[in-house]
Amino acid sequence: MGTYEIQIHGHILQIRVVECAALVITGLAELRPLIRSKRPVGLAVKFRHNRPNGKPTMLQLCVGTRCLVILLNQLDEIPRVLKDFLADQEICFVGVDMRKGLSAMERYYGIECTSSIEVSELGARILRKPKLCGSDLVVLANKVGISLEESPSFDSFNWGGKVFSDKEIKYAIRDVYASYLIGSKLLASLFL
Which residue ranges form the domains of the chain, and what is each CATH number? Predict the structure, then answer.
């Protein structure tokens, strides 16, 4: 648990990993002021051993260079502020493969997120390229002018773990940060 500073794509990210309700509240209080109009929140839901047929173990949120990693399987309770944050219709949550994760979040934790969109769908709509729907982050990043390297594979990564190395944290937040970057660039292009 704690805070990490990790460099990805030339940016230093501040990551807070939390496992109790009080720290979730603190982490969300740090993210909230960073959310401005036309700025999405990257979102990822992770399952133990990448098996999306059970209870989610990790929720990741990213705005700018700040990420919040919530270890859902460690929480004694789901704070109301987290439910309110994810239910906020003014926030556009973007990510990859979110449907199963958000469905499981609602089923197991009673958390709803109704203003979310797959980042590839957002790209397909804004760029008017339907074939981008379902594309991976590297392809999508290249289409919007962001240099993104392929994520390394962690075949045995345990999303339900309690302690993570810097390398594991970097791996864990790579996709949520990339979703944030791509979503930000796409939404900003609407207002040029």
Answer: 2-189 (3.30.420.10)
